[in-house]
What we know:
This protein is mostly helical. Helix content is about 55%, strand content about 0%.
Amino acid sequence: xxxxxxxxxxxxxxxxxxxxxxxxxxxxxxxxxxxxxxxxxxxxxxxxxxxxxxxxxxxxxxxxxxxxxxxxxxxx
Length: 76
């Protein structure tokens, strides 16, 4: 049985804890982090905090960033 997304009511994607939208947001966050890390030598936690604080961040990205921070991910 496929349970729901960890962040909303939608069906989660196979092999993920997220629905299609939150999974895409997570993938976009990972890509963006690589660019930020190369340019700014920023740690992942600091990146997540910065993204979560930006009004320009979309809802899906904001949800995933906060979820990862709450889970204690983004330590390096």
